[in-house]
Amino acid sequence: MQNALWQNILSEVSSLVDSTTFETWFRQLKVAANEEDARTLLIDAPNQFVVDFMEQHYKLKLLSIGRKHSPDLERIDFTVAAAREAFHLPPEAEKKTASLAMPKPSLSTPLFNHNFTFDSFVLGPGNEFAKSAALAVANAPGKTKFNPLLIYGGVGLGKTHLLQAVGNQLVSQRKDLRVAYSSSEEFYLNFIDAIKNNSTRKFSEHYRASNILLIDDIQFLSGKESTQEEFFYIFNTLYQNQRQIVLTSDLPPNSLKGLQDRLISRFQWGLCVDIQPPNLETRVAILKKKAEQDNLSIPESILIFIAENVSSNIRELEGIIIRLLAYASITRRDITIDLVKSILKGNQKQEKTKFSIEEIIDKVADYYKVPVNNIREKNRRKEVAFCRQLAMYIVKAYTNYSLKSIGLHFGGRDHSTVIHAIQHIEQIKEKDSSVSSDIEHIVSILSEEHS
Ligand code: ADP
Ligand code: MG
C-alpha cells in the first residue's frame, strides 16, 4: 500500500527533476515500513546528508504529490536506514528519537530557514533593489509605501531567500508582531483541509490576525478560484489595517495568467521589484559565501570554474556544490576540476532532449485524431485546445526547450500561455487519471521510436 504510494510519488518526481538529480537523491530512497497508518509515510535514506537534503529541498513537494495520490497523507518522515539497523531500532522508535519528522504544513508559528537571512544574501546588480525593498519592509512593516511588496523573478534567484529573510528578521526583532508565512502551495493545501474540516473560519482568522503576511510563489494560485477568493478577502482585511504584505512570484503581475484581475491590480498598489540573474562576480561571491557557511574548503579556482559554467540559476550553483560533495564523499575522490566537469556534464539533462517538438505534436495529434496543423494554430475548439496544452505539457516534461521556445513552436504564443497550459494539464491530471495514462502512452510510443 505505502510502497505503491511511494512508487507513484517517485514516478512523478522523475518527470519533474533531471535524471542526475533523480539518480543521486531519489533512487536510493525506500519505504522503511509499511505502516498501517495511511497518514504517515516513513522513508529510509542512506545517510543523514540525504535526509537533510530531502528535508530542505523536497519535503513539501513530495508531500503535495503524495497527497494527490493519497488524500489522507499528513507527513513524510525520513530516517537513516543504516542507523536504524545498527541500533536495531524498529521504525516507530527511530521516528520518535530522530525528530526528523516533517510536519504537515501547519498554521502555527512559522519556522524560517536560518540560512535565509539578509546577512547571507550576496548583493549584485540584479538583486540590490529587491534586497533594499525587503529590508525596508522588515525594518518598518506596514509603514513604508511598499505595501504590498511583490518580488518577482526566475527560478532559483533568491525570492524565497529574501521573503524568509524578512520573516527571520521580524521573528527575532519584533516579538510583538505576528508573522504568517506560507508558500502558496501550503496556503492552498491548508485551505482545502479547512474546507474538509469545516474550519475555514479558523483558517481565515489565522491569516487576518497577522501583522505581516508573507506568501511565496503566488503564481501557484493560478486557476484555483476559491483559494483566490479567500486570499482576496484576507488581503483586503490586512491592507485596510495597514498590515504588511510581501509576495513573490515567478512573473511580473501583469503576465500572471489564471489569477483574478482584481488580485493582479492589488499586487500593483505597492511596489513590484524584479530579481535578475546574477553576473559572474556575484555568482563567485555566492559560491564563496556558501562554501564558507558550510565550512567547506573548495579551492577558489574550482568555485570560479563552477560560476563560469553555471550561468543563471543560483539553486543550480548550490546543487553543483552539493553534488560535488556527495560524489567526493561517496567515491572518496578529491575535489578536482575533472570531477566538477563530470558533474556538470551530468547536469546538462542530456537525456531530456531526445524528443523533438515536432515528433511530440505528431504523436499527440495521432493519438487524439486531430489534424497536426490545428494543434499549432489558433484553433479554439475545446478538444484541439486540450491537445495543444497536452503537447506543451509533454514538451516541457520531456525536453529541454524553454517556455519561450515552446510558445514559439506553438504558433507564436508567449511563455505565460505555455505556463498556463502546463498548469491546466496538471489540474486535469489530478481529477482525471485517464489523462495521466494517455500521457504515459504517448511517451512510450515516442520512446519506442527512439530505442
Ligand atoms: P527562488 O525562490 O527565487 O526560486 P531561492 O530563494 O530558493 O530562489 O534561492 C535558491 C538558492 O539560492 C537558495 O539556497 C538561496 O539561499 C540561494 N541564493 C539566491 N540568491 C542568493 C544571494 N543573492 N546570495 C546568497 N544566496 C542566494
Ligand atoms: Mg522560491
Let me know the number of strands.
8
Q: How would you classify the helix and strand content by structural class?
A: alpha/beta
Estimate percent helicity.
55-70%
CATH homologous superfamily identity of the largest domain = P-loop containing nucleotide triphosphate hydrolases
The CA-CA distance between the termini, in Å, is: 33 Å
Second CATH tier, the architecture of the largest domain: 3-Layer(aba) Sandwich
Q: In order across it, which strands form the biggest sheet?
A: 5-6-7-4-8
Query: What is the alpha-carbon Rg in Å?
Result: 23 Å
In the residues, how many domains can be counted? 4
Percentage of β-strand residues: 5-15%
> How is the CATH topology of the largest domain named?
Rossmann fold
| Number of contiguous helices | 22
Summed over residues and divided by their number, the pLDDT gives a mean of 85
Unique ligands: adenosine-5'-diphosphate, magnesium ion
The description of the largest β-sheet is: 5 strands, parallel
Unreliably modeled segments: 85-106
Could you describe the 3D structure shown?
The protein has helices at 2-16, 19-26, 48-57, 59-69, 81-87, 91-98, 128-139, 159-173, 184-196, 200-208, 225-240, 261-267, 280-293, 300-309, 314-331, 337-346, 357-368, 372-376, 382-398, 403-409, 415-431, 433-450; strands at residues 30-31, 40-45, 75-80, 149-153, 179-183, 212-216, 244-249, 271-275. The protein contains 22 helices and eight strands. Strand 1 (30-31) and strand 2 form a beta hairpin. The chain starts with a helix and ends with a helix. Helices cover 57% and strands 9% of the residues. Mean pLDDT is 85; it is low at 85-106. It has a five-stranded parallel beta sheet with strand order 5-6-7-4-8, with helices on both faces. By secondary structure, it is of the alpha/beta class. The chain folds into four domains: 2-93, 2-Layer Sandwich (GMP Synthetase, Chain A, domain 3), CATH 3.30.300.180; 128-275, Rossmann fold, CATH 3.40.50.300; 280-347, Helicase, Ruva Protein, domain 3, CATH 1.10.8; 357-450, Chromosomal Replication Initiator Protein Dnaa, Chain: A. The structure holds adenosine-5'-diphosphate (ADP) and magnesium ion. Adenosine-5'-diphosphate is lined by residues 116, 120-122, 127, 153, 155-161, 286, 289, 314-315, 318.
